[in-house]
Design goal:
By secondary structure, the protein is of the alpha/beta class. It is built from 5 helices and 9 strands, in the order ββαββββαβαβαβα. Strands 1, 2, 5, 6, 7, 8 and 9 form a 7-stranded mixed β-sheet that branches.
């Protein structure tokens, strides 16, 4: 939580910026979410899927997908006056996971996007943030034609820690994505506030 402009006058909160990760499995909608909510032209590092990568790129359930993120997505959204979020979308494939540690440095929290048709694809992201004690919310991207599941059922299926929020969203819709980010900021704020109190006790 570092001000964008260190020279801003004391008490001036207009420059508060928070770093948020958007993670999840391959083809779950991370690039779509960042692009939908970003108020600037998003940075994308997508490359075409190739025949050479067919043995390592698991496209089961996302056969229509023709590109993949090879480094990160980046966008920015102003949640309210004085508060901006910088969004870093992680690559979803196993071979790019080495980038996650760099991207996670300084992050307030994360959104783990999930597709209930391939729920197991978000297990690595859930494990990653749980082990590093980075607050996260699970956002179920409600794809057209996919069966809807109750948030409590998703929570049980992922064996989430008690209190971890699960929300339903449409990654294509700006308002839906913004609501996910607001819930994450509120949850992460509560978690970061509680930790010093835990250490005192």
């Amino acid at each position: 939580m570092v001000p964008e402009h260190p020279d801003a006058p004391a008490g001036d909160t207009t420059a508060l910026a928070l770093k948020i990760l958007v993670a999840g499995g391959f083809g779950v909608g991370k690039t779509t979410l960042v692009g939908a909510v970003s108020e600037i032209r998003p940075l994308r590092t997508e490359e075409m899927l190739s025949e050479a990568g067919r043995t390592v790129d698991d496209t089961d359930g996302v056969a229509h997908k023709v590109t993949t993120t090879v480094a990160m997505d980046f966008g920015r959204i102003t949640i309210r006056s004085g508060l901006s979020l910088y969004l870093f979308g992680t690559p979803g494939q196993d071979r790019f996971w080495f980038l996650w540690d760099e991207l996670a440095q300084g992050a307030l929290g994360a959104v783990v996007l999930a597709d209930t048709r391939r729920l197991e694809d978000c297990f690595p992201a859930v494990d990653y943030f749980e082990h590093r004690k980075i607050p996260f919310v699970v956002a179920v991207n409600c794809f057209a034609g996919a069966r809807r599941h109750d948030a409590r059922d998703v929570c049980r299926a992922l064996d989430l820690d008690p209190g971890t929020p699960v929300v339903l969203c449409d990654a294509r819709e700006r308002d839906s994505g913004k609501e996910v980010l607001i819930q994450l900021v509120e949850y992460a704020g509560r978690m970061h506030t509680a930790r010093p109190l835990d250490s005192v006790g």
